[in-house]
Design a protein that fits this description.
The protein contains ten helices and seven strands. By secondary structure, it is α+β, with helices and mostly antiparallel strands. Strand 6 and strand 7 form a beta hairpin.
């Protein structure tokens, strides 16, 4: 079956309309002449796809081509009332064939860029694009949680807490991607600063509490007797938050325990322990590798990409320590590391 005269006329009308409205392609084309050439090319592809005796010819794919195919489909559907049903079916099938023939080549172009010199730049661009809306979600959720938009019911407060936790987690993943691509050089600042370990633990608890409540898990937090220390509170917060979120993810019952215990003098041991399913031996070898691939769905993985634990290890190492893990199948997992966090003396006058 080939195009009828009526079908070809409608195709030409749709093509002419696209050329006239070339400003719709302003992001992908610089002139009406470029749009016209692209439309002629796409129309030729549609005719070839509709004519079984003329196999479609391979042609380069571009953003302009994809845009033309999308808008041509829309224009033709607007004109469908003036065509025989068989002609409509033929046009739709031909357009879908052209669209599907574009996708594999477009995928190839994406792979080429990912594996080329600009591949890492593309990852950073995507991560930045993710962080912008997530930052807005976090701001709005926090505003509502603090009652600035009116009172919330207990159920709404719990659900909003889950929204905040999820958005915070996604925002952290985007930040982790950017840091990892940049080599992790800026994960931790050079200078230590005075901080309160209790405040770090409280901040982590506030974020993960809605997740724990939703799963019916107990949260246990324990800090050292000497609370005020010199260190890197931002890095410590990120590590404990990532590890705690992961512990909650892989625990169906029981508890998750976060402890910062004084070992002696300036040394403290930080640990996150869960009563989850444990880590399979097969997963241990690649546990800290970023962008690792799971062998099958459901396998243990800190995240789908493996970024979380990779960033945690880099952060811990940047603070001068080593991240250790111990696990027992069916009983749980514990991550731990020891930090040198000098005490803040009263004479420093840093905490009043």
């Amino acid at each position: 079956m080939v195009f009828s005269a009526a079908a070809r006329q409608r195709l030409d009308e749709a093509a002419d309309a696209l050329v006239e409205d070339w400003h719709a392609f302003s992001e992908d084309a610089i002139s009406q002449a470029e749009v016209a050439a692209g439309v002629v090319d796409v129309v030729a592809r549609v005719i070839e796809a509709a004519d079984a005796t003329a196999p479609a010819e391979e042609r380069p794919t571009s953003l302009l081509t994809r845009r033309i195919v999308t808008l041509l489909r829309r224009r033709l559907l607007d004109l469908a009332d003036h065509l025989d049903p068989m002609d409509v079916l033929l046009l739709v099938r031909a357009l879908e064939q052209v669209a599907s023939s574009i996708e594999p080549r477009w995928s190839g172009r994406f792979q080429d860029r990912m594996t080329g010199p600009s591949g890492l730049d593309l990852i950073v661009e995507v991560a930045h694009d993710l962080r912008s809306p997530l930052t807005s979600i976090l701001f709005l959720a926090e505003t509502m949680l603090h009652g600035r938009s009116g009172p919330l019911t207990p159920l709404q407060e719990r659900q909003l807490g889950l929204v905040y936790s999820a958005a915070f987690g996604l925002n952290a993943v985007a930040s982790d991607v950017i840091e990892l691509v940049r080599g992790g050089d800026r994960l931790v600042g050079r200078d230590m600063q005075p901080f309160s370990i209790a405040e770090v633990l409280e901040a982590v608890r506030d974020i993960v509490l809605p997740i724990a409540e939703e799963k019916g898990l107990e949260l246990r937090f324990d800090g050292p007797g000497t609370d005020r220390r010199h260190g890197h509170p931002g890095a410590l917060n990120r590590v404990l938050l990532n590890l705690t979120t992961n512990a909650l993810k892989f625990s169906a019952e029981g508890y998750v325990e976060v402890k910062v215990v004084e070992i002696g003098g300036d040394i403290v041991e930080c640990s996150v322990r869960d009563t989850g399913r444990g880590i399979p031996a097969a997963a241990m070898a690649t546990l800290f590798e970023p962008f690792r691939r799971r062998q099958k769905p459901g396998d243990y993985a800190f995240s789908g990409s493996g970024l979380g634990l990779s960033i945690c290890r880099k952060l811990v190492e940047a603070m001068g320590a080593e991240l250790a893990v111990s696990t027992v199948q069916g009983e749980g997992t514990s991550f731990s590391f020891r930090l040198v966090l000098p005490l803040v003396q009263a004479a420093d006058g840093l905490f009043g």
